[in-house]
Amino acid sequence: MILVNRGREITAVNRMAREIVGVGEVGRDLALTMRHPRVLAAVEAVLTGESTVSEEITLAAPTPRTFTLHAARLAGAGAAHSQAAAAAVLVLRDETRAKRAEQTRADFVANASHELRSPLSALIGFIETLLGPASDDAHARERFLGLMRAEAMRMARLVDDLMSLSRVEINEHVPPKDAVAIGAILQSVADTLSVRAEDKGMTIALDADANLPFVLGDGDQLTQVFHNLVDNAVKYARTGTVVRLVAKRTERGAGGGQGVSVAVIDAGDGIAAIHLPRLTERFYRADAGRSRRLGGTGLGLAIVKHIVNRHRGTLSIESKRGVGTTFTVVLPAAPSVGSTSQ
Ligand code: ADP
């Protein structure tokens, strides 16, 4: 909030405004600090008769921030005739965060629509070919139906992942309450994905400490976390390699107490360091062509990150080109309900 007199000199600022106009600016012309033409026009308007003016403005320094600006004449201020008294008030509301959230939402809808549109366009193309030129061609029909099934399944996977993501986001602030045996979850994930691994000549090796503590968790969600990580390892690692799942008891670090760390280690080509910080963003892919060819939705790691956040855990990614990638999830242990024998 900034007050100016009828000579446009600053008469008072609150603490937040001081960050924008700077300390020690009281007594000086507002135009020396805020050169934004729309701000000055709004002040001019209220000082010369308008009662209020509202604007949206972007201030470039120190980093670009978007504000709504409300300028108002201070009504009935008899003292406003004196040069020293405040004659107008400027209220600036920082909307940067809200704007960014709005942009993220808009990008997400655009990305999701685009991801759904591609298989849909392919399906429409196949249907038209089957109705037209290939209507009497049994061989083409069979081939196209196979391709159509693959495209439809891609859409189904995408819709399933979008629904998972929205479910996780809805309850992200509600911490899970059950004591969960992580070893059993890892075993079931390894069993489920071993067939897919075998198809690539790969194996999944589980190495879990005996007497791992229970973790405070949601069994279905944790299954999804490790399913997504192991599925990626199988998808992106080289044929014939081993995916290692290593679960250990750990001091949780930041939180202090006991925890369980689970590392999913693959011997793939690795991921270039430049991608690592953005890997858990929705639809972010290090290699988009490869992901799509392998049936990826680009949402797996975003789902992992949100579930881990809900569990007050951490996710770290280490990767070395040509050597492989390790995803490590650390989860806090459930408060002393004993340990599991796994
Ligand atoms: P996708 O459905 O594309 O696999 P994810 O969100 O699961 O989406 O992963 C995002 C991207 O991270 C992938 O497209 C891939 O480029 C990269 N990635 C994930 N896991 C691995 C891995 N184990 N090895 C190499 N790259 C990986």
UniProtKB/TrEMBL annotation:
Enzyme class: transferase
Tagged with keyword Zinc-finger: no
GO MF assignments: ATP binding; phosphoprotein phosphatase activity; phosphorelay sensor kinase activity
CDD domains in the cross-refs: HisKA (cd00082)
GO CC, alphabetical: plasma membrane
Keyword field: ATP-binding, Cell membrane, Kinase, Membrane, Nucleotide-binding, Phosphoprotein, Transferase, Two-component regulatory system
TM stretches of this protein: none
Cellular compartments annotated: Cell membrane
The Histidine kinase domain, residue ranges: 111-335
Catalysed transformations (reactions): ATP + protein L-histidine = ADP + protein N-phospho-L-histidine
Pfam families, A to Z: HATPase_c, HisKA
A biological process term (GO) from this entry: cellular response to phosphate starvation
EC identifiers of the protein: 2.7.13.3
Record's protein name: histidine kinase
Species lineage: Bacteria, Pseudomonadati, Pseudomonadota, Alphaproteobacteria, Rhodospirillales
